[in-house]
Every structure is written in C-alpha cells, then in structure tokens.
Amino acid sequence: PATHARKTAMLELNATLYKLDELKGQYNAQPVQPSAHDLLNQALYGNNGEISATDETTFGASATDACNPAAGGKKGRGMSLASDLPCVCESTDQALGCAGKGIGTATVYSSAVLAKTWYEALVKKCPTVKHGKLTASAILAAVASFGAAVKTQGKATQAENIILGINNAADCNSGGADGCVKYKQEADSGKLDIPWLDKLIEAADSISKENRRRQKNQQLLKRAIALADTAILSYVRALGGDPPQKQLAATTQVPQAAKHSEETCNKHQSRDKCTEPCKWKEDAADKDKKCSLDPKNVAEQQATQEGTGEAKKEEKCAWKGEKECKDGCKWEGTECKDSSILVNKQFSLSMVSAAFAALLF
C-alpha cells in the first residue's frame, strides 16, 4: 500500500542508490603500478626483473664493465644488487671474506655466466632473517643506512671516490684481487647514481601509494555499508506500514440550529408535536408559526452538546419522529439518529477490518 512509510522508504532508497553510485565513482580498483614487487625485483636483478646471464641486464661481461667502468662507459656499477654482490666479494680464495668459507667455485668476475653461478652459490651462504611485512619506512631506513655507510671517507687517498669494499683507494681495481665496486656520484647534487638504489626508493613510494589507495577504498566501503544499513532499516519500517495515528478531534461544527430548527418547528401544527427546542405559542400572530424555536432551549442544548461530544449529535435528531427524521438525521430501528455518527462508525469498522485483513495476509 502507498503508505507514508513506504513513500519515505522509496525516497531514502533512491537517495542511497545515488550516493552509492557516487561512492562507486570514487572507488579505485586498480593497484598502483609499477608494483613494489616488480620494483624490488628490478632492484635485485636489473630492469627486466629476472635473473639473466645473457643480455647483460643482471650481470656485466667482466668486473671492469660491472664494477668499475670508465665514466660514460658500459652499464656498469649499480646495475643490479645481484651484480654488485660478486663485485664486492670477488677474490682468489672463493669469497672467504664474504662467506666465511669457500663456496666451492671461482669467485673471479670474468663473465656474466660465471658471475651468475657464484652469485647463486654465495646467496646460499647468506644468513636468513625472519621479518614481518615489508614497509615503506623499512626500505627507506635501509637506503639511508647504506648511504651513510658508503659515503664514509676512510682515508685521504680515497678522497671523494665512493668505493664499496675497500678503503684508502682512488679506484677499484677488480679482477680477482680486492673485491669492490665504485659508484658514480653527481658532481652538483652529490646524489649517488645507483640504479638499484633508485628502484628501492621507488618501491617504498609504491607501497605508500598502494596503502593510501586501500585505506581510501576501505573508508568508501564503510560508508557504503552504513548507507545500505540505513536503507534496509527504512525498508523494514515500510513493511510495517504507518504507525497508528492519534484519534482526530471531531471536526463537525455545532449545527446552525437557529434557521434549521425554526423552519422545522414551524412545520408542527399541534401542541403535542411541538417539542423542544420548539415552543408552542397559542397567541402567535402568524397562525402558521404557533410552534417556533425557543432561543433559551437552543442555548441549553448547545451547551449540553459541547460537553458531551457525540451525544450532542444524537440529541438534534432524537426528538424527531420517523417522518421528520431527515436533514442530517437517519431513522434506525425505532429512533432517529445523526447520520454522520453512523457513517463514522461504519468507516471505523471498515478500517479495523482492513487492518486485520492486512495482518492476516
């Protein structure tokens, strides 16, 4: 049924759908690209993100190319973490300085294939540490720690050269002697030009952006759930229909008895028919109006009607006979009654019946 509760629920549902569509437009389902996972693999293995010994994206052709290239030369230093590890651990004693004992293979950076082989052997000797979820702050802390350590100038000979693996040297002479890697530093800004380090910083930024994306989506989801809950509550209220209304005050006005009753009284031509609020006047000038309205009786009846509610409606008809029972009155059984009261009672009965039927079905 078209109840007020139903109309209200429809308005709330339409408003909810509009807001949900608005929230849907703000929802970002696309993860941040490139992902932190991809960037970390690029930091470890080079731009392709996969370890390779054939295309010189992970390892260089020699220590000279990978660990200490001439300015403006080949890809060289910092091309990948996987390449820098053999640079630092290169030696003639099977990387005892890094692994603590021989790794069972040559540790001279003489080709990309050999570098890959003993990188994989060397990694197995590295201790593993359990850690929780990788965070942007943890990555940036590691980057800062590396930057502070690698820029420490040990001796005057090293001067402004950024060399990891040896101190007091102006150059990194690789080739089986002392393992090292020489990084390039921008003259103006002092920034280290290390590709894998840049990838780590990008990975930290990607994690931060992805976290913000997920947090915003979570907030949108919470708002959507709250809107849906409100809409469902409105729908449930609508199923129950409108709440019962308070009984309205009677709107029937006090009858305009003066003119109506005067005309009615004049119709009575005998004393026995001339009853209140009429009064019989034997000496009336107009013989057709010997029965006329008594103002005193009218005033008393109106005062009584105002204090007795619906009873006043009955009184205006109660004194009438069957033939005179009209003009707002209706003959019922053996007495004349106010027709408006009968209609109201019938209407109330029909409303109760309809409500009861609604509860059943």
UniProtKB/TrEMBL annotation:
Transmembrane segments: none annotated. Keywords: Cell membrane, Glycoprotein, GPI-anchor, Lipoprotein, Membrane, Signal. Pfam families: Trypan_glycop_C, VSG_B. Residues 265-360 form the Trypanosome variant surface glycoprotein C-terminal domain. It is found in: Cell membrane. It comes from the Eukaryota. GO terms for cellular component: plasma membrane; side of membrane. Residues 3-222 form the Trypanosome variant surface glycoprotein B-type N-terminal domain. The keyword Translocase does not apply. It is a lipid-anchor; GPI-anchor. InterPro entries: Trypano_VSG_B_N_dom, Variant_surf_glycoprt_trypan_C, VSG_C_dom_sf. VSG forms a coat on the surface of the parasite. The trypanosome evades the immune response of the host by expressing a series of antigenically distinct VSGs from an estimated 1000 VSG genes. This is Variant surface glycoprotein 2096. It comes from Trypanosoma brucei.
